[in-house]
C-alpha cells in the first residue's frame, strides 16, 4: 500500500476517531510516556503565564498530558481531523484549552499565529507531506528561546527494533483495527514508521530547521528504540 497523505489521511482519522481511544489505551504506557515527554520540555512550575501549542492533538491524549504536567498554561490544540477534534472537545477540560481545526501546514489560515512559549507535537511529523516545512513554521511560531517537544515513532536503526515494531503492528494493532473497519489507517501506521527517519536522522532534521540544543531521549518499556522524545529550542536571537 502507499502511505496515506493529506485529505486521505484526514478522512481515515475521521473514521477511526470513534475507536481511537480504546486502541491507544491498550498500549502499555501510552499516556505515561506522553506526560514524560512533556516533562522533558523543562518548562517552569505549573506553566502559569505560558502559551502552548499542541500540534496534532488528535482526541486529546497529548492535550491531557500537557494539562496534567502544566495545569496553569493556556493551550491551543490543533488537528486536521474533524472527527478526532469532536472526540477531544467532548472531554472535560480544566483550565484554558482551545481546539482549532487546521492542517499543520496551514496554521495561519485558521488564526493560529503565536507566539508560543512551547510547541508539542506527538505522532505528527511522520504523517505530514513536508516535515521540514512544518518544523520551520513551528520555529517561527515560537518566542526566542521557546521549546519544541516532539514525541514520535523514530526507529533506532537496529534490526531488532524494526522487528518488534512489525510484530506489534501485524500481530496486535492491525487485527484490532481491522475489526473496527480501520485497517487501512493502521497499515499506514506500520509503514509510515519504517519509512520515516531514524532517530539520528530526525534529530539532524530538527537542527537543519534552525533549532539548537537538540536532544533525542528514549522512552522506556517495549518502545525503547522505537519511540523517542526530541527536545530543542529556538535560538534566543537571530
Automatic annotation (TrEMBL):
Tell me which UniProt keywords the record has, alphabetically: Methyltransferase, Transferase
Q: Which InterPro entries match?
A: SAM-dependent_MTases_sf (IPR029063)
UniProt xrefs under Pfam families = Ubie_methyltran
Q: Which GO terms describe its molecular function?
A: methyltransferase activity
Q: Which SUPFAM superfamilies match?
A: S-adenosyl-L-methionine-dependent methyltransferases
Q: Mind listing the GO biological process terms from this record?
A: methylation
- What is the protein named? Methyltransferase
Q: Which organism is it from?
A: Streptomyces canarius
Q: What is the lineage of its organism?
A: Bacteria, Bacillati, Actinomycetota, Actinomycetes, Kitasatosporales
Amino acid at each position: 500500500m502507499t502511505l496515506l497523505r493529506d485529505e486521505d489521511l484526514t478522512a481515515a482519522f475521521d473514521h477511526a476517531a470513534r475507536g481511537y481511544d480504546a486502541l491507544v489505551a491498550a498500549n502499555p504506557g501510552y499516556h505515561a510516556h506522553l506526560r514524560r515527554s512533556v516533562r522533558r520540555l523543562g518548562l517552569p512550575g505549573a506553566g502559569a503565564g505560558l502559551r502552548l501549542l499542541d500540534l496534532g492533538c488528535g482526541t486529546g491524549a497529548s492535550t491531557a498530558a500537557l494539562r496534567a504536567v502544566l495545569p496553569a498554561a493556556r493551550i491551543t490544540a490543533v488537528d486536521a481531523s474533524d472527527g478526532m477534534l469532536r472526540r477531544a472537545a467532548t472531554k472535560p477540560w480544566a483550565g484554558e484549552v482551545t481546539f482549532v481545526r487546521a492542517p499543520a501546514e496551514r496554521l495561519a489560515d485558521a488564526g493560529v499565529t503565536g507566539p508560543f512559549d512551547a510547541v508539542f507535537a506527538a505522532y505528527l511529523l511522520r504523517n505530514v507531506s513536508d516535515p521540514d516545512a512544518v518544523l520551520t513554521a513551528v520555529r517561527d511560531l515560537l518566542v526566542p528561546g521557546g521549546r519544541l517537544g516532539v514525541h514520535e515513532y523514530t526507529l533506532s536503526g537496529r534490526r531488532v527494533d524494526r522487528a518488534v515494531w512489525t510484530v506489534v503492528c501485524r500481530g496486535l494493532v492491525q487485527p484490532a483495527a481491522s475489526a473496527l473497519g480501520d485497517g487501512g489507517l493502521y497499515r499506514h501506521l506500520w509503514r509510515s514508521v519504517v519509512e520515516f527517519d531514524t532517530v539520528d536522522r530526525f534529530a539532524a532534521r530538527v537542527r537543519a530547521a534552525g533549532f539548537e540544543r537538540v536532544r533525542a531521549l528514549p522512552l522506556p518499556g517495549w518502545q525503547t528504540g522505537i519511540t523517542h522524545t526530541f527536545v530543542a529550542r529556538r535560538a534566543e536571537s537571530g
